[in-house]
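Lab notebook, bench 4. The sequencing result for the construct came back, and we need a structural model before the next group meeting so we can plan mutations. Quick request posted to the team channel:

Model the 3D structure of this chain.
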Amino acid sequence: MSDKKNFGYLGNTFQIQLLNNIVTYKDFANSIIEVIDPHYFDNQYFRIICQMIREYYTKYDHTPTFDTLEQLTKSEISSPMAQKSILDTIEQVKNVADEGSVFVQEKSLKFCKQQELQKVMVKTQSIIDKGDFESYDKLEEMVRGALQVGEVDKGTADVFFNLDEVLNEDYRHPIPIGVPGIDNLLKGGLAKGEIGVILAPTGVGKSTFTTKIANHAFNLGYNVLQIFFEDNPKIIQRKHITLWTGIHPDDLTERREEVMEKVKQIQSTRKNKLIMKKLASDTVTMNQIKNQVRKMIAEGNKIDMIILDYIDCVVPDKNLGDEWKSEGSVMRGFEAMCHELDIAGWTATQGNRSSISSEVVTTDQMGGSIKKAQVGHVIITVAKSLQQKEMNLATIAITKSRIGKDGVIFENCKFDNGMLEIDTEQSVTFLGHEEQKEERNRNRIKELLERKKQKES
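Done. Here's the predicted structure in token form:
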């Protein structure tokens, strides 16, 4: 094994992946470019490429593309033999597999941090040996600076920064949920780093809704992780099969051959993944979920969307002594995870008792802490009367949206739990719904009065 003074002990492929990540991932490049030394690589061509990247970054404040690296090599490397070797190496870096990128980034950044800290410790020890105790503040500042290496402030930016990207029409890159009326109001769906909440009473169809969202995202080519706590995995699988085949879950076994043929056709045309994961209810924290997701990403399973069915089954990482505060901290942990890992997140939550009999479920009917509602970018509610359940209908409302229009009700939508069909054809505002409710009440009173008159006569 090579000396751990460079990346050699981690192998050749690791170093190729590291160079690829510096070029490919902007945030990672910003965090490591100032502290990565070309001499940390044990191959002369890796060192030359690293040096070219660093010099280009210093001059233009961003990393070069692979095409630019090739042009720089052709213009700056005079030896034909060296030029060919570097171009071949760039081609390797360009085409290396993306699997394990999280591991590569964490390991290399930790290595660079340790190297910086080691340099600082040598300097501080020299000052201490001289007995210069008046320099304590300077020592503290040096150590703090070394510990903060690689920390990039993503939340602060000049208002004029990156205007071209800000003004792009697709600056959010949303992932549609597959219900056109709702997608239109959400300006295309939910984007990475945003979280949406499905709020409904028990037994209405939260799992139907979240499974439909997961299935639609997968069909569009996204990698989806669907986490659930209470359902049997086979039930979730059958829901997905119904969505792909249009065959009711009760008929899947009977039509096995037809089902297998259709599902295999779907499987053969997809390179992305839809991963199901069942976790224990009321024992798993958001931090544990985050660690599992990070491990999956490190193993090469890229995740674009995470479905958490549902948030009420996750316990807080710390006992805050207040159940409502704890519930709010769980939702904030979910939002922080989606933001950090650049994932779109959907979850579901139970409505309280009053939501069971409501014509329209509102945000204040969320079970437990209202703080859960404060965190979500989008809240969609689902209500079903007994008659609506019998007729496979529901009333869906967008009660909160930081993305587009909210306060919109889709009344008597098609909502078939068996076939997982959700179709929004009608919509009214909350005000319009109340006006219609009053009109229905007036008509009901007139009808009762007419019946009374008929009986009296």
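The radius of gyration is 28 Å.
Will bring this to the meeting.
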